[in-house]
Specification:
- By secondary structure, the protein is an all-alpha fold.
- Helix content is about 85%, strand content about 0%.
- It contains one helix and no strands.
Length: about 60
Protein backbone atom coordinates (compact mmCIF):
# COMPACT_ATOMS: atom_id res chain seq x y z
CA UNK A 1 0.00 0.00 0.00
CA UNK A 2 1.39 3.35 -1.02
CA UNK A 3 0.52 6.27 1.24
CA UNK A 4 0.11 9.84 0.17
CA UNK A 5 2.18 12.62 1.65
CA UNK A 6 -0.96 13.88 3.39
CA UNK A 7 -1.54 10.48 5.03
CA UNK A 8 2.07 10.33 6.16
CA UNK A 9 1.84 13.86 7.58
CA UNK A 10 -1.33 12.92 9.47
CA UNK A 11 0.37 9.83 10.91
CA UNK A 12 3.40 11.93 11.82
CA UNK A 13 1.19 14.50 13.56
CA UNK A 14 -0.62 11.75 15.46
CA UNK A 15 2.69 10.22 16.57
CA UNK A 16 4.00 13.62 17.67
CA UNK A 17 0.82 14.13 19.73
CA UNK A 18 1.27 10.72 21.35
CA UNK A 19 4.88 11.60 22.20
CA UNK A 20 3.79 14.92 23.76
CA UNK A 21 1.12 13.15 25.82
CA UNK A 22 3.60 10.50 26.94
CA UNK A 23 6.17 13.15 27.88
CA UNK A 24 3.51 15.03 29.85
CA UNK A 25 2.48 11.85 31.65
CA UNK A 26 6.09 11.02 32.52
CA UNK A 27 6.67 14.56 33.81
CA UNK A 28 3.50 14.37 35.92
CA UNK A 29 4.50 11.06 37.49
CA UNK A 30 8.03 12.32 38.16
CA UNK A 31 6.58 15.39 39.88
CA UNK A 32 4.28 13.21 41.98
CA UNK A 33 7.22 10.99 42.99
CA UNK A 34 9.28 14.05 43.96
CA UNK A 35 6.37 15.43 45.98
CA UNK A 36 5.95 12.12 47.79
CA UNK A 37 9.68 11.95 48.48
CA UNK A 38 9.62 15.51 49.80
CA UNK A 39 6.66 14.67 52.04
CA UNK A 40 8.60 11.75 53.54
CA UNK A 41 11.58 14.01 54.24
CA UNK A 42 9.34 16.59 55.96
CA UNK A 43 7.64 13.88 58.04
CA UNK A 44 11.04 12.48 59.06
CA UNK A 45 12.17 15.98 60.11
CA UNK A 46 8.97 16.47 62.11
CA UNK A 47 9.40 13.10 63.83
CA UNK A 48 13.01 13.96 64.67
CA UNK A 49 11.87 17.28 66.16
CA UNK A 50 9.20 15.53 68.27
CA UNK A 51 11.75 12.96 69.42
CA UNK A 52 14.17 15.73 70.42
CA UNK A 53 11.43 17.58 72.29
CA UNK A 54 10.44 14.41 74.17
CA UNK A 55 14.05 13.67 75.08
CA UNK A 56 14.46 17.25 76.31
CA UNK A 57 11.28 16.99 78.39
CA UNK A 58 11.65 13.44 79.68
CA UNK A 59 15.37 12.74 79.42
CA UNK A 60 17.19 10.03 77.50
CA UNK A 61 15.47 6.63 77.40
CA UNK A 62 17.18 4.06 79.58
Amino acid sequence: MIKTIEELEQESDALEQMIRETDASIAYHQAEALKESGNRIVLRQELDAVESALISALGEPS
